[in-house]
């Protein structure tokens, strides 16, 4: 026992055991296995005692080190970590709520042929042909609000609040500093779009106006025809008079007797009162009476009311609200067109009007000369020189004790441009107001309204000509080419203009049909003597009454058929009895009647 313990603690030098091999620092990866604790005696009886398994050739070792080296695996790990960000990992929205961002991303999947920049451009330019009705309805749900656009804009600007260019915001130029979610990229494209919600409403109106208007006109006409059919139906009037007569007979001597009329919903109560035998209702009696008088056409009054059932499913209040909403959408489009023109005029005036500089309490703006032969350019140059001289006087006044009047240069320029007026001013004793000459120059620089109106062209016709003339003048003049030209009108403005002309005519027609339908419904309500009643309630009661009348007619027909069948059976039985009586009892061949003994029958 002691010898085994010593050998275990101090193994001999020539013993090549696995612990010594495992102590060396291996350059290869660790192989995960479980070694066997076998003695030499046990090892000799196993497959591991074979010596050829211990030797590995050097080329195989080199290949093993190449494949399973620790250094190679260490260098491969950073490569794997570098590839992970390149995978399509979903980015989380930072400026939007998670639910809102998910809804936007889901909605954007329906725009397969459009990217966010194309969607924003289509809305900005009012390109109605780019979108379908389903896409516009989806855009109405996912269109970013002004607060969401501002939040994305602040996210793009960063902590410093530095504004980025349009290319950086839309992703067309340099990539933004922070990676954005697709919903945030979609919102960033609407940063420079003015009134996106109003423009989307205009697109929806332009896309669906014709279809909605046609459908609404069709339903209004159905309602109008149904009301006219009711008021002009002679069969219905005859049936109502029969019901009134029967009711007054039944209610004679009571508070409800001697009635001049009854409500339409009272027709549905004719089936509630039954006869003594409980087999017939009041409506069954009335139908039976009319059929016995050969007035079956009165019972079939529904044949004259062909549009009754269709009109009963059309609430008049909803039809009127739809008509108002449709015409309101046209008015919204009209206001948006006016806003687009105002935006274009404001941009044009901002680009043409030079910068205003302030000297003291007076703001001096270059204006055109008011001379008869002077051009706006000369007048503008004179006023600019006046500003320069006023500035020189102001600088010179800083060195002198008495400050010079900064308006002297302006007045000198105005007197030079108007020699006759300057002479008259010199004769007067009171000095003229320096702002009067400036206002006169500004008025002369503006073209009078009569000149603009004398062309005889409407603003809609002048949309394209004004833009073309502006581009041509800027291309011909080198100085004007350096100045930034105002942005042209959206591409869909001519289409919107044509649409508004057509839509206004259709709205007038729709309004006329709607008023006619309202009048016919009022006539129908007055026909039944129920002022203030809902026309839909009257129509639904008439539909139910027509169905009850049809059931009563079928019930009477079944009774008549059953009675006829019973009568035929009785007549057949009576004929058979008469025939048997005429033939007499059956007899034998000898002529004597056959008699059978009572009891058991046998041979």
Give the structure's gist in a few sentences.
This protein has a domain at 98-193. It is built from 26 helices and 2 strands. It has helices spanning 2-9, 18-23, 40-44, 58-68, 70-83, 98-108, 116-124, 133-142, 146-157, 166-170, 182-188, 196-231, 234-250, 282-292, 296-299, 308-312, 316-352, 376-397, 408-417, 419-427, 434-445, 449-453, 462-476, 478-482, 493-527, 535-583, and strands at residues 357-359, 362-364.
Key terms:
603 residues, mainly alpha, 26 helices, 61% helix, FH2_Formin_sf, Formin_homology_domain, FH2_Formin
Spatial strand arrangement across the major sheet: 1-2
**What general form does the structure show?**
flat
**How many H/I helices?**
26
Which runs of at least 5 residues are low in confidence (pLDDT < 50)? 14-23, 79-86, 169-175, 359-364, 366-374, 421-430, 448-456, 464-486
Helix and strand sequence: HHHHHHHHHHHHHHHHHEEHHHHHHHHH
Mean pLDDT, all residues: 74
Report strand %. under 5%
Structural class: mainly alpha
* Biggest sheet record: 2 strands, antiparallel
Cα Rg: 51 Å
Helix % is 55-70%
Distance between the termini: 125 Å
Instruction: Please give the number of β-strands.
Output: 2
Protein name: FH2 domain-containing protein
Organism: Rhizochromulina marina
Domain FH2: 18-575
Biased composition (Low complexity): 579-591
Characterize the structure shown:
The chain is an all-alpha fold. It has a domain at 98-193. The protein is 61% helix and 1% strand. It is built from 26 helices and 2 strands. The chain has helices spanning 2-9, 18-23, 40-44, 58-68, 70-83, 98-108, 116-124, 133-142, 146-157, 166-170, 182-188, 196-231, 234-250, 282-292, 296-299, 308-312, 316-352, 376-397, 408-417, 419-427, 434-445, 449-453, 462-476, 478-482, 493-527, 535-583; strands at 357-359, 362-364. A two-stranded antiparallel ribbon has the order 1-2. A hairpin with a 2-residue loop joins strand 1 and strand 2 (362-364). Helix 18 (376-397) runs antiparallel to helix 19 (408-417). Residues 14-23, 79-86, 169-175, 359-364, 366-374, 421-430, 448-456 and 464-486 have low confidence and may be disordered.
